[in-house]
Amino acid sequence: MNHSLPVRVYYEDTDLAGIVYYANYLKFIERARTEWVRGLGIDQTRLKAEDGIVFAVRRVEADYLKPGRFDDLLTVVTTLDGVTGARLVLKQDVQRGDEPLFRAVVTIVALSEGGAPARLPAELRRQLESQLSEK
Amino acid sequence: MNHSLPVRVYYEDTDLAGIVYYANYLKFIERARTEWVRGLGIDQTRLKAEDGIVFAVRRVEADYLKPGRFDDLLTVVTTLDGVTGARLVLKQDVQRGDEPLFRAVVTIVALSEGGAPARLPAELRRQLESQLSEK
Amino acid sequence: MNHSLPVRVYYEDTDLAGIVYYANYLKFIERARTEWVRGLGIDQTRLKAEDGIVFAVRRVEADYLKPGRFDDLLTVVTTLDGVTGARLVLKQDVQRGDEPLFRAVVTIVALSEGGAPARLPAELRRQLESQLSEK
Amino acid sequence: MNHSLPVRVYYEDTDLAGIVYYANYLKFIERARTEWVRGLGIDQTRLKAEDGIVFAVRRVEADYLKPGRFDDLLTVVTTLDGVTGARLVLKQDVQRGDEPLFRAVVTIVALSEGGAPARLPAELRRQLESQLSEK
After folding, report:
1. Among A114, B84, D70, D104, which one is most buried in terms of CB atoms within 10 A?
2. How much is the pTM?
3. Which domains does chain C have, with CATH numbers?
4. Active site residue A13
């Protein structure tokens, strides 16, 4: 089960090399994670208010394959690759059509509001695991 | 009494036109306001905790005169131009040497944490007014 | 003739005050200008290649009325307010539903690639003026 | 031979979680690379003009250890970890005092202006290798 988000490249995303500035791919894939979570019916605001749980990025491995350019219409493809008690691993690719430009493996952890590692609420974990099994 | 902050232009600040992206001047002048406030001995964190006061930008008038470029060492010059009970007006110029690149008039308001307009604490107002009289 | 662009507020757009960082509204309205220009059938890449013309922001007057927040679905409404030989004036509002959050008057100039003021190509000017008369 | 760059955390760097937004560490370490290259006496503008060589990030492995916060004065510590004919590997840590917040391994490649992999000019390579041997 892949999730796709279209992303248009605007001036703000480019640098003087005429290509997408390298940090901005992390913005693109974070937008996609937000929409993916929303699409699963997970309400991050409620999760924080009721369970005191927030998500944080723990690790990113990112490969820059080809440069994106102004006005490109890119697609962020997000796939859940693993879930454990307190951790998700996502694969996130940024493509221009079928051409891969950027590829990341992102590890997300659940934190209590104090910042300590937290376990995912059981219902949320089941919801996420169903994404895995439907792959 | 002017306050000066040096700002180096990095890749992140430029766009494909090879110049500083227009929104980023607002980042530069916000850095300068933070340092100006710090230089006055005003602790924004304490102001929020003790007086429930935060500052917010209410209006910006910005003129883009010449483009900044990668690797430029710019200076943000900040001058307090007026203080009333709940409002500051600042002039903020971004220069490359003596050459003005960007010029803004920024109106700042004090807000209570709920977002309603708030009066500046008397001591803070005196502190700010002393900046005016020393001009 | 208004042009509307929906803009979702993501983490990248917010700051520690929990609201949209003030410089980011300039990004939102620049995205809207890019889409507005595209919608008019103007190809900025060709304009630069064939006529040596680029657009640059010369002045922004911006009022911050209410804060935007994470996950808000905003709308940027862009209206052409004036065209002269080398200059456009646009009104650009950012709204949450009918509620105005941000309001800007943006002056755009045409520049030759060397950076000198340039006249708009006649066809482009006619195209833009038709937007005015259809208001 | 480590290179250190101080970086102050401003509003622009934070998000609604009250911490440094994760993509912004890539900005911090890119600033440090620019200053490191400048410190070595390498002129990127000349390298591009004379040798047609530009540097591009090919891979980033990033660990987020602890959150940075508004007003923190951070240090980016950059160490050259390897040089081959067309590739540099850098270790870049972001610290608050001695406390590591962020740790990255960054692979940089040299590209010709057309985007093809290019060999580092011999003098540049020697210059870089001297950084290694002095470790």
Report:
1. D104
2. 0.95
3. 2-133 (3.10.129.10)
4. no
